[in-house]
Design goal:
Helix content: 55-70%
Strand content: under 5%
Number of domains: 1
Shape: globular
Number of helices: 7
CATH class: Mainly Alpha
Order of helices and strands: HHHHHHH
CATH superfamily: NusB-like
Length: 136
């Protein structure tokens, strides 16, 4: 989420180098390759699908000026929407709960309701179980 926030403010010329530098700057550098693999999948997935993801946000938040959505909320929403749409191995309720928790930690008080509302509407459009991963 932190990288996606940074990316939304200042899109780099070299994405791979930018991500490498981001990892190097992290205080708690994990030795667990699975951690970086999952993070890479989220980062690249969000960026590669950002037009579709942003389109979903615009569709659901039709009363909001997209440019006025807080960048941190946008990063949280983009990551969660990517998971909801493309990571069928993650139960939707897990994704939504994690996103709301992130908004509680990093954003304004009212943001959690906004994030939850957007994600709940997208969740309602999905044709898959809420509390379990899909077999696909």
């Amino acid at each position: 989420m932190q990288y996606l926030y940074s990316w939304s403010i200042n899109k780099p010329n070299d994405l791979n180098d930018s991500i490498r530098l981001f990892y190097e700057d992290q205080e708690d550098q994990s030795e667990d390759r699975d951690y970086y693999s999952f993070a890479d999948e989220l980062i690249y997935g969000v960026i590669e699908n950002s037009e579709d993801i942003d389109g979903k946000i615009r569709e659901i938040a039709n009363n909001w000026d997209f440019g006025r959505i807080a960048k941190i909320d946008l990063a949280i929403l983009r990551m969660a929407i990517f998971e909801l749409l493309f990571r069928k191995d993650i139960p939707p309720v897990v994704t939504i709960n994690e996103a709301v928790d992130l908004s509680k930690l990093y954003s304004a008080e009212e943001s959690r309701r906004f994030v939850n509302g957007i994600l709940d509407r997208i969740h309602g459009q999905l044709d898959r179980p809420s509390r379990s991963a899909s077999e696909e």
